[in-house]
Specification:
Length: about 325
């Protein structure tokens, strides 16, 4: 049977945004395009431009979670929106935990802490919830509070989304972007980079965004424009024939069939023109291995590749042809 390949599609984007209280996470999320707010936090009244949410604050956790399930079953009503905003995911998990405590108390210890199988049920239920959310094929913006976690045994702390248990793996694995709001020079910044100070996921190399003042003309559509930009970047990547995969294969084939120093020189020039650092490193590694196999060394004084001098000692020959040494010399010359 012939393999059937699918062209990747970019129809919707999934983003998590976290940060400390008071930095405007909910307000920011509501600047997405035509949002439906699933309000588990009951804090929308504090947003800059509050809208009517669907809240889940029934008399019991079981009744509230049943309302969640009824809401998700209302597909025709949800389909009129373009973005689903969940505020906050920590509150979603708290509701799941409270509901399970009411309906399946055997999953909990005497002090109310979930047992191992209890945590498994919590993860499974939250996974089912997110699976339904994603099935609507809408843009999804999930809000989370900030949690500082101590790094190793140092006194330094790193910011993570405040999500208990194993449910955070859903976002690390399935979401396109994870960003955090922070302050820099008294301005609010939205950043998606993973750093020593904060968790992030920046799968399309987005820059830091300065969040405009909520009274400005740019603010009401700010996140909608960021999401539109993200979609375009993903589409451009899919159409880009100079992508890492498109580049690596043909150049690697040329490297494997090269036999002369001047061919390696030409290939090195082609590698220098590649804009993807990881691909460059892989190709340099392949080029250096090929040079070693051919007993060709890189002479930094030329600069370029040349046939190994047969009069050199074996130890010198081995050092000259080692992959690490060749890469080191190439990098020194560039």
């Amino acid at each position: 049977m012939k393999l059937e390949f699918n062209t990747p599609q970019v129809s919707n984007i999934k983003i998590m945004i976290f940060g400390e209280g008071g930095l405007g996470k909910t307000s920011l999320a509501l600047t997405s395009f035509n949002p439906l707010l699933l309000d588990f936090n009951q804090g929308v009244h504090r947003a800059s431009y509050p809208l009517e949410p669907i809240s889940f604050n029934e008399l019991s956790a079981k009744e509230s979670w049943n309302k969640v399930l009824r809401t998700l079953a209302s597909k025709e009503d949800i389909n009129v929106f373009n973005t689903i905003v969940i505020d906050t995911y920590g509150d979603v998990l708290e509701l799941i935990i409270d509901c399970l405590f009411e309906t399946k108390p055997k999953l909990f210890m005497s002090q109310g802490k979930p047992k191992e199988n209890g945590w498994g049920e919590i993860k499974a239920e939250s996974g089912r919830f997110m699976k339904v959310i994603k099935s609507f094929q809408k843009d999804v913006v999930v809000i989370a509070h900030n949690n500082y976690v101590k790094r190793n045994r140092s006194e330094d702390y790193k910011s993570y989304p405040d999500i208990v248990g194993r449910s955070k793996k859903i976002f690390e694995r399935d979401f396109d972007l994870i960003g955090y709001i922070t302050l820099k020079d008294n301005k609010r910044i939205l950043c998606f980079d993973h750093s020593e100070d904060a968790m992030g996921k920046n799968s399309i190399e987005l820059p830091e965004y300065t969040i405009p003042d909520h009274k400005s003309n740019e603010y009401p559509t700010f996140l909608a424009e960021v999401i539109a930009d993200v979609k375009q970047k993903f589409k451009n990547r899919l159409l880009d024939k100079s992508s890492p995969i498109e580049i690596y294969g043909p150049l690697k084939k040329e490297i494997d069939t090269a036999t002369e120093p001047h061919e390696l020189d030409t290939l090195l020039d082609k590698i220098k023109a590649v804009k993807y650092d990881y691909t460059v490193r892989m190709l340099k590694n392949a080029l250096s291995k090929r040079a070693g196999t051919l007993q060709i060394k890189y002479n930094i004084n030329l600069p370029g590749f040349e046939i190994q001098d047969k009069q050199e000692s074996k130890s010198q020959t081995k050092a000259a042809n080692s992959v690490e040494e060749t890469i080191k010399k190439i990098d020194q010359n560039n």
